[in-house]
Amino acid sequence: MRTRFVKTAIAALTCAMVAVPAGAAYAGSGPAPKPSERSISKSTAPSAKGNPASRAAQAADVCEDAYQIGSTGYVKRSGVTIASVKQFYSPDCQENYGYVWVWESFRKTAGDYDVTSAIYSSTQDEVLGGRSWLNTTGQEFWSYGTDTVSDCTAAVGSVRKAGDPTPNHAASSKRC
Fold first, then answer.
1. For the chain, how far is it from start to end, CA to CA, in angstroms?
2. What is the number of domains present in the chain?
3. Does the residue 154 lie in any domain?
């Protein structure tokens, strides 16, 4: 059963690449946000914006200087937004991370659900750093870090409510 879910999740993440916009922004172009403008927080509380100091982020070894790059993608189910997908970048660790935040409005009514979070490298045509959670009611999900800073990448994520045959998925904007 677990192997089938993992294969389904990987297939869903791969299919999500169709939703990745063709345009690209370059990670090395333009100014990086000033440290005061980054969402770095001393708090370990989870956040819709993404808190690299949270317990979930630390469990995935996210570097605390990570900040969001690119625009947010939105997971929709029956036309209703149920989660956000963001890509984070750490200058200190030179890694990218995927981040999925499940919206409270979905969590209140969904029961349990399955979640995936990863980085898609269009340069390598691979889904990397992927993590998955089965039968969870959690809110914050980080992928593992990926050595893809010189690649064109997007964060990808999916949410599958118990009873749904396939997951709903989304991707952040592509960054190069």
1. 36
2. 1
3. yes
Any bridge partners for residue 133, and if so which?
A: 115
Asked if residue 176 is part of any domain, the answer here is no
pLDDT in tens, the chain (176 residues): 444 444 444 444 444 433 444 333 444 434 455 554 554 447 889 999 999 999 999 999 999 999 999 999 999 999 999 999 999 999 999 999 999 999 999 999 999 999 999 999 999 999 999 999 999 999 999 999 999 999 999 999 999 999 999 999 999 999 99
Place of tokens 């937004």: 81
Contact at 8 Å (CB) between 72 and 49?
no
Q: Domain residues for 145?
A: 2-171
Class of residue 76 by CB neighbours under 10 A (exposed 0-12, middle 13-18, buried 19+):
middle
114 inside domain: yes
Report which secondary-structure segment, H or E, holds 9. helix 2-16
